[in-house]
Amino acid sequence: MTGVLEGMRRFALSNAISVTAKTLGLCTAALMAVAGGSVSQIVLVIVGVWLGAAIASLTACLVLLPVLRSGLAFRKGLLVRLVGYGKWLAVFSSSSFLIVYLDRFVIATLMPLSAVVLYTVPFDITVRLGLLPSAIARAVFPTFSSLPAEGRSSALNYYFSRSTKHLLVTVGWTVVILATFPSEILGAWLGKPISEGGANIMRLLSVSMLINSFAYMPSAYLQASGRPDVPAKIHLAQLPVHAALVFALVSMLGPLGAALAWTIFVAINLGLLWFFASRPFGIRGAIDRSVVRALLILGLVAGAAALIKVMPVSAAERMLTLGIVSAVYALGCWLWVLDASERNRLLQAVRRSA
């Protein structure tokens, strides 16, 4: 039902139901835990909350699509197609889960549990960078599925270039901060022992998450165009190789080896996804001039951040300088990366929220 709402591009309504359910579930669970509720009672309440969310989504679908109220029809051919499509999505999700958590299992098997913490904390921080590309991919999924049918396949380059540019502008700067100041971030949060052992791991994982953020679009395109088997088969083909590489690198380098193995995996995965996504319609125009300008500006501010890192100044002065560089970066992106239509949309969004 969430997919139906998103397919109709009713993202605000879908997110409102989801956020309300998550917030209500977490708050209710916390209050029940404080009041001494049992685990079974908390689970039951959470299930009830999500059942209510499902009913709300179903109601919204029935209201927005009156044809759903006209009766049910069973179509065997459509069911077969849906099952065939869904099985590859299930394979993709399952293999993704194994790939993401394999390194932790290997570290826990070969090394002390303290090594798991050194890897898990930076990974859990940097993996949040995937929220934005995931949201963009979900937003353009209905468009990707409809463009070929509408005879507008040439517009795919437009959406790919826009998404690539927006990811560079947003995720790119966050990666610069995480990769330049990992010891400071980890130290302020969890103390010196974690910061000393996890700084290089966080630096490498930050770069890998930037690489991985560009894999969401070709993966979404392949799934939306009726080829969910391609991302799934890519994961299945990489899984044994990745497992062997994780075991080898963790044995040699410890948690840093796991981070290196993850970086190699996401780089190969990105290359394969872009290769297969570009074959049908030649999606090579995703690297236009605005993307090149974004890369240049990001490279310049990355160099500035590295200089700030080694400057013999106090922490307050370093933060002030970094804030100035961030403002200059934002101005540069506004003037030379975003086009007029994008600037107008941002201004309109600011006015509506004011």
Question: Would you write up a description of this structure?
Answer:
The protein has 354 residues and is mostly helical. It folds into two domains: 1-73, no CATH class; 99-353, no CATH class. The chain is 84% helix and 0% strand. The protein is built from 15 helices and no strands. The chain has helices at 2-7, 11-34, 39-64, 76-110, 113-126, 131-146, 156-180, 182-190, 192-213, 216-224, 229-253, 255-281, 289-310, 315-336, 340-353. Helix 4 (76-110) runs antiparallel to helix 12 (255-281), helix 10 (216-224) crosses helix 12 (255-281) and helix 11 (229-253) runs antiparallel to helix 12 (255-281). It starts with a helix and ends with a helix. The relative contact order is 0.09.
Using brief descriptors, characterize the structure shown.
single chain; 354 residues; mainly alpha; 2 domains; 84% helix
SSE layout and pairings?
Layout: H1 2-7, H2 11-34, H3 39-64, H4 76-110, H5 113-126, H6 131-146, H7 156-180, H8 182-190, H9 192-213, H10 216-224, H11 229-253, H12 255-281, H13 289-310, H14 315-336, H15 340-353
Helix pairs in contact: 2-3, 4-11, 4-12, 5-9, 5-12, 6-7, 6-10, 7-9, 7-13, 8-9, 9-12, 10-12, 11-12, 13-14
Task: Give a short overview.
With 354 residues, this protein is an all-alpha fold. It has helices spanning 2-7, 11-34, 39-64, 76-110, 113-126, 131-146, 156-180, 182-190, 192-213, 216-224, 229-253, 255-281, 289-310, 315-336, 340-353. The protein has 15 helices and no strands.
Strand content: under 5%
- Helix tally equals 15
| N to C succession of SSEs | HHHHHHHHHHHHHHH
Question: How much is the radius of gyration in Å?
Answer: 23 Å
Low-confidence stretches: none
**SSE-based structural type:** mainly alpha
Largest sheet data: none
Instruction: Give the integer mean of the pLDDT values.
Output: 83
Number of DSSP-assigned strands: 0
